[in-house]
TrEMBL record:
InterPro entries: NEXT_complex_subunit, Nucleotide-bd_a/b_plait_sf, RBD_domain_sf, RRM_dom. The keyword Chaperone does not apply. This is RRM domain-containing protein. It is found in: Nucleus, Nucleoplasm. Keywords: Nucleus, RNA-binding. Pfam families: RRM_1. GO terms for biological process: regulation of alternative mRNA splicing, via spliceosome.
Length: 84
């Protein structure tokens, strides 16, 4: 059975997103790093993205996404990625 520690190890925190970013954009981008369990996008009061959590199905996808997708440009901003 999965525990909270396991899910936390499979999760990344994404910030610095362009205001046009949606959950679908993030899903499409991060599925390049591996299979995704879910994407959670938190928004500011004006509806712009504040930060997101991407939960992968395996731990290896976390390091892959940090190594290869860090600073990916969306619009005129580069996203920041870190482990949760």
């Amino acid at each position: 059975m999965e525990n909270a520690y396991d899910r936390r190890e499979r999760t990344i925190y994404v910030s610095g997103m362009h205001r046009s970013v949606t959950e679908e954009h993030l899903y499409d981008l991060f599925q390049k790093a591996g299979p995704i369990e879910k994407v959670i996008l938190k928004e500011n009061q004006d509806g712009s993205p504040q930060h997101a959590l991407v939960v992968f199905k395996n731990v290896d996808s976390v390091m892959y996404s940090i190594a290869y997708l860090q600073a990916t440009q969306i619009g005129d901003l580069s996203i920041n990625i870190r482990p949760l």
